[in-house]
From TrEMBL, chain A:
Coiled coil: none annotated. Keywords: Transferase. GO terms for molecular function: CoA-transferase activity. Pfam families: CoA_trans. It comes from Afifella marina DSM 2698. InterPro entries: 3-oxoacid_CoA-transf_A, CoA_trans_fam_I, CoA_transf_BS, NagB/RpiA_transferase-like. The keyword Repeat does not apply. PANTHER family: ACETATE COA-TRANSFERASE SUBUNIT ALPHA, KETOACID-COENZYME A TRANSFERASE. Gene3D superfamilies: Glutaconate Coenzyme A-transferase. Signal peptide: none annotated. Belongs to the 3-oxoacid CoA-transferase subunit A family. The keyword Transferase applies. This is Acetate CoA/acetoacetate CoA-transferase alpha subunit. It comes from the Bacteria.
From TrEMBL, chain B:
Gene3D superfamilies: Glutaconate Coenzyme A-transferase (3.40.1080.10). Keywords: Transferase. It comes from Afifella marina DSM 2698. SUPFAM superfamilies: NagB/RpiA/CoA transferase-like (SSF100950). NCBIfam families: pcaJ_scoB_fam. Belongs to the 3-oxoacid CoA-transferase subunit B family. InterPro entries: 3-oxoacid_CoA-transf_B, CoA_trans_fam_I, CoA_transf_AS, NagB/RpiA_transferase-like. SMART domains: CoA_trans (SM00882). This is Acetate CoA/acetoacetate CoA-transferase beta subunit. Pfam families: CoA_trans (PF01144).
């Protein structure tokens, strides 16, 4: 059963130095209030696992702007010149992973798999230092599972229990990440009564959600 | 005709009705603007949709519906949405008929390099490695040279995107078909000679007896 809490109380539960998965693709599907609270509370030394670092001032780009990130595991930083600058200056550790492999590593982490074999990256820099295996004459790269201390999830709708639905391309990595972290924080565009979401549209069942961010601001 | 338009129009001829197609950001995206009217293809965006379309009208932007560059898009009737794992399952699993990507270099083996220039530009591979490894047909859309230097080279000096022979290279000068025997010069652009192409290409090209001309509508 998830706990309904205000956004600042939620983020107080995240420690400096945490490994944090954050849903979203170029900011679409990234939980805006949780990101803003991370910046307000100056949670630092974070390792972020996310598809990209968006742009300065947008989504995960805000964490980069604020200098809160020590490392990112991501598929693309080309749209964020600050991420690139920090990487070149060796102030930010960037681990680049092919996008489909990143998704599978997160899925493996959440689905209890020891890894996934993929043809993606064979013979490229992405396979350097990685284990390769031959199966029926085909070479594959072993993509190892990824897990996080915390996942920050952005949903379209949630009910009071924490059942989540997603919208269009804002879905992206969110349902995968909701499986792959020790503590899952969900923020939704709208909160609706239990029973109004049809079971078939629920993409993330409430048992996966630990904290549901309420609409109200925190007091005191 | 603008070089990019020529390339886009020529690549549009490669698509067939019913194809599931992924267009990379930049020049490849232009291909969607030059499809024959009677052609029905479905565009995938790797951030999680089949059936993306141009934004039908300014003012209808919704941040929940964007392309892989984060730009607002529309969706056609019958569009379907899914998560990133499923999206790349489509790509790697042999369900994607065609991918059109930009290129920095293609070599005599038909191998593509398009995701980084060490020490200068390290944007990350995004979905490119999965797309090139997984799509049934890989089409490279690029200018023939960069600042005068050939981009079709003997062997890629830049990091490879995949150890896979791409299926077609379309530039403003030529259409080149990588084969097991090497790069075949299939077509030259209007006003371009075979010698012009050879002069702008570092890789060896196989020249058939009859080289066609790139034919696109004005």
């Amino acid at each position: 059963m998830c706990e309904v809490i205000c956004v600042d109380d939620a983020v107080e539960r995240i420690e400096d130095g945490a490994v944090v998965m954050i849903g979203g693709f170029m900011g679409s599907g990234t939980p805006p209030r949780l990101i803003d609270a991370l910046v307000r509370q100056k949670k630092s030394d974070l390792t972020i696992i996310s598809n990209d670092t968006a742009k300065p001032g947008i989504g995960i780009g805000k964490l980069i702007d604020a200098g809160l990130v020590r490392k990112v595991v991501t598929s693309h930083i080309g749209t964020n010149p600050i991420t690139q600058k920090l990487m070149i200056a060796e102030e930010l550790d960037v681990e680049l992973v092919p996008q489909g492999t990143l998704a599978e590593r997160i899925r493996a982490g959440g689905f209890g798999l020891g890894g996934v074999l993929t043809r993606t990256g064979v013979g490229t820099l992405a396979a350097e230092g990685e284990t390769t295996l031959e199966v029926d004459g085909e070479t594959y790269v072993l993509a190892k599972p990824l897990r996080a201390d915390v996942a920050l999830i952005n949903a379209k709708l949630t009910d009071y229990l924490g059942n989540l639905t997603y919208s269009l391309t804002a879905r992206n990595f969110n349902p995968l990440m909701a499986m792959a972290a020790d503590k899952v924080f969900a923020e939704a565009e709208a909160i609706v009564p239990v029973g109004t979401l049809a079971p078939d549209v629920i993409a993330t069942p409430h048992v996966l959600v630990d904290y549901l961010v309420s609409k109200e601001a925190c007091h005191g | 005709m603008d070089n990019k338009v020529l390339i886009a129009k020529r690549i549009a001829q490669e698509l067939k009705s019913g194809d599931l197609v992924n267009l990379g950001i930049g020049m490849p995206t232009l291909v969607a603007s030059y499809l024959p009217k009677d052609l029905e293809v479905f565009f995938q965006s790797e951030n999680g949709i089949i059936g993306m379309s141009m934004l039908p009208h300014p003012g209808l932007e919704d941040f929940d519906l964007t392309d892989a560059g984060g730009n607002p898009i529309g969706a056609v009737p019958g569009a379907a949405g899914f998560d990133s794992g499923f999206s790349f399952g489509l790509i790697r699993g042999g369900h994607l008929d065609v991918t059109v990507l930009g290129g920095l270099q293609v070599d005599e083996r038909g191998y593509l390099a398009n995701w980084m220039v060490p020490g200068k530009m390290v944007p990350g591979m995004g979905g490119a490695m999965d797309l090139v490894a997984g799509a049934k047909k890989v089409i490279v859309a690029m200018t023939h040279t960069a600042k005068g230097a050939p981009k079709i080279v003997k062997e890629c000096s830049l990091p490879l995107t995949a150890e896979r022979r791409v299926d077609l290279i379309v530039t403003e000068m030529a259409v080149i078909t990588p084969t097991a025997d090497g790069l075949v010069l299939s077509e030259v652009a209007p006003g371009t000679s075979v010698e012009d192409v050879l002069a702008a290409t570092e890789a060896s090209l196989i020249i058939p007896d009859a080289v066609g001309e790139m034919k696109v509508a004005a």
